[in-house]
Q: What sequence folds into this?
């Protein structure tokens, strides 16, 4: 009988990328897909909230400036246990906006990560997501 070989397969992590800038969404999609993630991109805030509440994602990348519903409103709804009782995804806020310190602190307290898009390459984003457990 031949010795068995054990192959460990890293499960694919699912990412919901809520981003209305097409170019940025495509950069993130390419980098994350190459790194083994499964990615879905949604540009509309209302549609994105419904998708995020489905609780089928491991990570949600959440832009703050979105059409029809802001990222801050989405974040608050996802963190409200009466509106989204079973969310398991980690939420990473992505923005290029300069925030007042009190608003930034409020967002950081509700999110699992906060990144400024202009300061992070797509490869660095992948590394950042790898560090989130």
A:
């Amino acid at each position: 009988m031949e010795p068995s070989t054990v192959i460990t397969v890293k499960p694919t992590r699912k990412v919901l990328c809520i981003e209305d800038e097409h170019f940025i969404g495509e950069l993130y999609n390419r980098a994350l897909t190459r790194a083994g993630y499964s990615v879905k991109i949604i540009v509309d805030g209302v549609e994105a909230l419904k998708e995020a509440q489905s609780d089928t994602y491991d990570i949600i990348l959440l832009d703050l400036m979105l059409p029809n519903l802001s990222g801050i409103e989405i974040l608050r709804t996802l963190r409200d246990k009466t509106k989204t009782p079973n969310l398991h995804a980690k939420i990473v806020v992505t923005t290029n906006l300069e925030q007042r310190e009190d608003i930034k602190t409020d967002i950081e307290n509700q999110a699992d990560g906060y990144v400024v898009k202009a300061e992070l390459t797509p490869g660095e984003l992948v590394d950042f997501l790898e560090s989130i457990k």
Q: What stands out?
A: The mean pLDDT is 90. Residues 22-34 form the longest helix (13 residues). The chain has one domain: 14-131. The helical segments are 22-34, 45-52, 71-79, 101-110, 122-131.
